[in-house]
Design brief:
The protein has one domain (65-218): Orthogonal Bundle (Tetracycline Repressor, domain 2), CATH 1.10.357. Helix content is 76%, strand content 0%. It has helices spanning 2-26, 36-43, 47-53, 57-79, 88-105, 108-119, 129-146, 153-172, 174-181, 188-210, 214-218.
Length: 219
């Protein structure tokens, strides 16, 4: 019995190590360019061990995406906490700060989404395509549940999807965009620039969504 427990515990630890290494590889290389051998090298173990736990690369990729989605879903439960007593500007500012803090703790998510959004042409045969949809829909569903708005649903959808795409780009490809700006992608200055940009682009539209006027529909 004790031996079985030890073997189970060892197997769980090995699986976690594989997933950690896979997160690193898939967040730095597009799915079709990444390989199981790269994962083995990143985790410092023989790649046949990976095949024992994940017979196919697609299954390994889906496991990584599932893990990341669980993390952002857990974050989403507290993302909008205590914002109902603040002004729209202050609450939106705090939402961005909280999103940045989530990214600091789990930088792989936006990098992985960015890597594969840019390099996949046919998503119908792409592993975890439904998880990618869930990623974007998760932002939308949380917004709809937590924010009181009066704009048409399509306006809300457009706003949330646009915000998600822009955030994914700025955080997932920070090295590229920071270089354009002459900044360190890991610096406070870069995140301040991203936040100012998000506030500039999206805050006016957010106010229109929350305080929608029928005149907007006629404009």
């Amino acid at each position: 019995m004790v031996e079985d427990w030890k073997n189970t515990r060892k197997g769980e630890n090995t699986r976690k190590r594989i997933l950690q290494a896979a997160r690193m590889v898939f967040s730095n290389h597009p799915y079709h360019s990444a390989s199981v051998r790269m994962v083995g090298k990143a985790g410092n173990f023989d790649h046949p061990i990976i095949h024992y736990y994940f017979p196919k690369k697609a299954g390994l990729f889906e496991a990584v995406v599932n893990e990341l989605l669980e993390e952002i879903n857990a974050f989403a439960t507290t993302w909008y906490k205590d914002l109902d007593t603040m002004s729209t500007g202050k609450s939106f500012s705090l939402c961005i700060d909280r999103l940045f803090e989530f990214h600091r703790k789990s930088p792989d998510l936006f990098r992985l989404i960015m890597q594969n959004t840019a390099h996949v042409e046919d998503y119908s045969s792409f592993p975890a395509v439904d998880k990618y949809t869930a990623f974007h829909d998760g932002f939308l569903n949380t917004f709809q549940e937590k924010i009181t708005y009066t704009a048409p649903p399509e306006d809300v959808r457009r706003f949330v999807y646009s915000f998600t795409v822009v955030v994914t780009n700025y955080l997932g490809a920070s090295s590229t965009y920071a270089q354009f700006l002459g900044l360190d992608p890991a610096s406070r200055e870069y995140l301040e620039w991203v936040k100012e940009t998000l506030m500039f682009i999206f805050l006016p539209r957010l106010k229109k969504i929350i305080f929608y006027d029928q005149q907007d529909a006629k404009a």
